[in-house]
Specification:
Blueprint (H helix, E strand, L loop, with lengths): L1 E3 L16 E3 L7 H9 L6 E3 L20 E3 L21 E3 L21 E2 L1 E3 L18 E6 L7 H5 L9 E7 L8 H11 L7 E5 L11 H9 L1
Parallel strand pairs: 1-2, 2-3, 3-4, 4-5, 5-6, 7-8, 8-9, 9-10
Protein name: R13L1/DRL21-like LRR repeat region domain-containing protein
Pfam family, one: LRR_1
InterPro entries: Leu-rich_rpt, LRR_dom_sf, LRR_R13L1-DRL21
């Protein structure tokens, strides 16, 4: 059963306990209403909250143990995902691109071992938020790795294991402005990422060592694939 264009009156007694898919994009609702909306949908597989005005996703989402797809794309006010999102052990697709206020992910994303799509991984220096979280995830499709200026050593970049992600087709790598990062470190991090040769699209943004592209082994290896 798919429910779309739903009302979010928190006083409404929801009866859709067997609902499998909920398309609530463009939703304008307070957090309390959203929490009430999903708390009883224990069998939900697909939840689309894209383009919503919510700032924080309710913790009740972490009780949706059958959830396979969570889509919060272009939620421009969203700045925080649920801390315990890793309890969604069966989650396969997490779409979070376009959430411009989202500055970090919950720690230990590596525990979502069924994950096939993670549209944005935000590097952070905190434990459980570094590139090694990607190591054993069999990701495919599109991946954006942002905040690469926070990677201190090329060794950390290798732990992302992009070369082992054969199903990855589109890769976006981005750096923020960081005066403390040297050109050599940016170049070494870029080379150490070493994505799979199956890529069809590579987008590099904010790379501080841009004038040294020609000497970068990563660019050379990708060019040789064509």
């Amino acid at each position: 059963m798919l429910l779309t264009n739903c009302s979010t009156d928190p006083n409404k007694n929801w009866k859709f306990h067997s609902l499998r898919a909920l398309d609530a994009k463009l939703l304008i609702t307070p957090l309390s209403s959203l929490s009430s909306l999903v708390s009883n949908l224990k069998h939900l597989r697909y939840l689309n909250l894209s383009h919503c005005t919510v700032e924080v996703l309710p913790d009740s989402i972490c009780l949706l143990h059958h959830l396979l797809i969570l889509d919060v794309r272009y939620c421009h006010y969203l700045y925080k995902l649920p801390k315990h999102i890793i309890r969604l052990k069966g989650l396969r697709h997490l779409y979070i691109q376009g959430c411009s206020r989202l500055s970090h992910l919950p720690p230990n994303i590596r525990q979502l071992t069924c994950l096939k799509t993670l549209s944005n991984f935000i590097v952070d220096r905190r434990r459980g938020c570094q590139l090694d979280e990607l190591n054993h995830l069999n990701l495919g499709g599109y991946l954006h790795i942002s905040n690469l200026d926070k990677v201190r050593r090329p060794k950390e970049a290798r732990f992302a294991n992009l070369s082992g992600k054969r199903n990855l087709k589109r890769l976006h790598l981005s750096w923020n402005t960081n005066e403390n990062e040297s050109e050599d470190n940016a170049k070494d991090v870029l080379e150490a990422l070493a994505p799979s040769t199956g890529l069809t699209e590579l987008n590099i943004q904010g790379y501080k060592g841009s004038e040294r592209f020609k000497s970068c082994q990563l660019i050379s290896s990708l060019a040789s694939m064509r």
